[in-house]
Amino acid sequence: MAGPLANLLLAIAFAAAARVMPQVAAGGLMRALMVAGVAWNCALALFNLFPIPPLDGFSMLLFFVPARHAVKIFQFRQKFGFFSLLLIFGISNMFWAFFWPVYSVLRDIAAPL
C-alpha cells in the first residue's frame, strides 16, 4: 500500500503548491504543471489499486479471500505476476481506457499555454 499512499501524498503536495502559485504568465506554466502532477498522481494511485498481480490492489485482494485460496493466488503471482500485467495491458485497450481521461485533462490544461 506504499505506492497509492505515496501517490496521494504527492498529489496533496502538488495541490498545495498549485494553490500558492500565481496565475500570471510565468507562474501560470508552473501552476499548470502542478495541476498535472495532481491529476497524474491521483490516476496512478487508482491504477495501483487494480487487483492485477504486481500491483498493490492484488496484495489487498489476498486479505479478502480464504487462506487456502490466498496461498494459490500468491503462488500464481510469484509465477506469472508481471507477465499477466503485460498481457492485460499489451493486448487490450484497457491501458488507454484508463489513461485517456488523464491525458485529456492534461491536454486541456496545456492547450491554452
Task: Give the arrangement of secondary structure elements.
Blueprint: H1 2-20, H2 25-48, H3 56-61, H4 67-91, H5 94-110
Helix pairs in contact: 1-2, 2-5
Structure description:
With 113 residues, this protein is mainly α. It has five helices and no strands. The chain has helices at residues 2-20, 25-48, 56-61, 67-91, 94-110.
The major beta sheet can be summarized as: none
Order of helices and strands: HHHHH
Radius of gyration: 18 Å
Task: Outline the low-pLDDT stretches.
Answer: none
Oligomer designation: single chain
Structural class: mainly alpha
- What proportion of the residues form beta strands (DSSP E)? under 5%
Q: Quote the average pLDDT.
A: 76
Helix content: over 70%
| Alpha carbon gap, first and last residue | 36 Å
The geometry reads as: elongated
- How many helices? 5
Whole-number count of domains: 1
Could you give the count of β-strands? 0
In short:
With 113 residues, the protein is mainly α. The protein has helices at residues 2-20, 25-48, 56-61, 67-91, 94-110.
